[in-house]
Amino acid sequence: MKIFLLTSHLKERDGASKAIINFAKGIKTLSNNEPVIVSLSVSLDTSKLGNIEVVNLGKSLGIFSSFRILLGSSSPLRPFRKYMLEDGKFIVATDDLVPLSEFKNDLVYWSQGVLISVFFWEPFYRKNKLISVLGSPFLLHNTIKFSNFVRKYKIVLANSKTSAVYVSLFYNRPPSSVVYPPLDTDFFKPSKSKEKFVVAILKRGYPSHIELLSKLAEKVKMKVIGYKIPNADYLEKVSDEELRDLYSSALVTLYPVDFEYFGYIPVESMASGTPVIAFRYSGGPSETIIDGRCGWLASDEEEFYRLTMKIYREGYSEDVNIQSRKRAEEFSIQNQTKLLLSILDKLKV
């Protein structure tokens, strides 16, 4: 049987895309089902995916189409209808495709967050003032429309407990299960002895406490990806292999992001045997990091600074490396795909 993974985009260094690709690989390896990724747009080299079928609809969402979806219109998503007529099971795997439930019954929605929550995020307002001004008056309309769309899904899943809370709150449909984004633990694994430096991997557009990192960089050797920090080594255009080696050789990974629904960076670091320092209120990272066992969770900037300095000066026991890897294996492609397949087995088509 075919299992269709429906997404709005496939692109490099994108967490949503990575999760979908890893699920497809897991379905291919662990079952007799045939995964098919159907995407509105594709901007990565699909030849690297082996014999996984990828359908590129060539219809990337522009600002106007995205705004229509926010208002609850399903018309920009009509290119999917042709493929939704085929026999198989269908997973809607990005949140801007929620209106697809208008076209077909028995869909599965795997939520990676709540689309409209971006309008409550102050950095989004600063960078997208026009969209914010246009969209804000329609938030109530959007919430009602999307709640109706989500209600039509046969099964609703979430990519973290944090996402599940938001889906329950905004869409009034508690997810039945949490299936975490799958991690390639065969690729990310301990491979180097530890060196005395910390690595900070920052995401563009996410508040990342730059002043805190700048202060730390005055005291510790720091390597940074994603943003230039004074006194730190800035690494640009890092390959996946270089990133893996960076994780595994670092003493600790700093992840000072205020909030995200899941977050691959902490689990990739832990899979590489390197613990992570993050914030206790950070959502997904505060779920995946077990405080004191495979990393540390800080309540504020002061504690984040203090924890980093303590780890840098005193180190930690080898058991932390072992526990970090052990924790990351819970999010492996094998474990999370098996969970997803067990849920899909209950879905009649």
Question: What's the SSE blueprint?
Answer:
Blueprint: E1 2-7, H1 15-30, E2 34-39, E3 53-56, H2 63-70, H3 81-84, E4 89-92, E5 108-111, H4 122-127, H5 129-135, H6 139-151, E6 155-158, H7 161-171, E7 177-178, E8 198-201, H8 210-217, E9 222-225, E10 233-235, H9 240-249, E11 252-255, H10 264-271, E12 276-279, H11 284-288, E13 295-298, H12 301-314, H13 318-329, H14 333-344
Parallel strand pairs: 1-2, 1-4, 2-3, 4-5, 5-6, 6-7, 8-9, 8-11, 9-10, 11-12, 12-13
Keywords: Transferase
InterPro entries: ALG2 (IPR027054), Glyco_trans_1 (IPR001296)
GO molecular function: GDP-Man:Man(1)GlcNAc(2)-PP-Dol alpha-1,3-mannosyltransferase activity
CATH homologous superfamily grouping of the largest domain: Glycogen Phosphorylase B
Assembly annotation: single chain
Q: Terminal Cα separation, in Å?
A: 10 Å
List the helices and strands in order.
EHEEHHEEHHHEHEEHEEHEHEHEHHH
- Flag low-confidence runs: none
Remind me, CATH topology of the largest domain? Rossmann fold
**What structural class do the secondary elements suggest?**
alpha/beta
Shape, per Cα inertia axes: globular
Estimated radius of gyration: 20 Å
User: Which architecture of the largest domain does the CATH hierarchy give at level 2?
Assistant: 3-Layer(aba) Sandwich
CATH class of the largest domain equals Alpha Beta
Largest sheet: 7 strands, parallel
Please report the number of helical segments.
14
Summed over residues and divided by their number, the pLDDT gives a mean of 91
Could you tell me the number of beta strands?
Answer: 13
Helix-residue proportion: 25-40%
Protein name: Glycosyl transferase group 1
GO molecular function, one term: GDP-Man:Man(1)GlcNAc(2)-PP-Dol alpha-1,3-mannosyltransferase activity
InterPro entries: ALG2, Glyco_trans_1
Keywords: Transferase
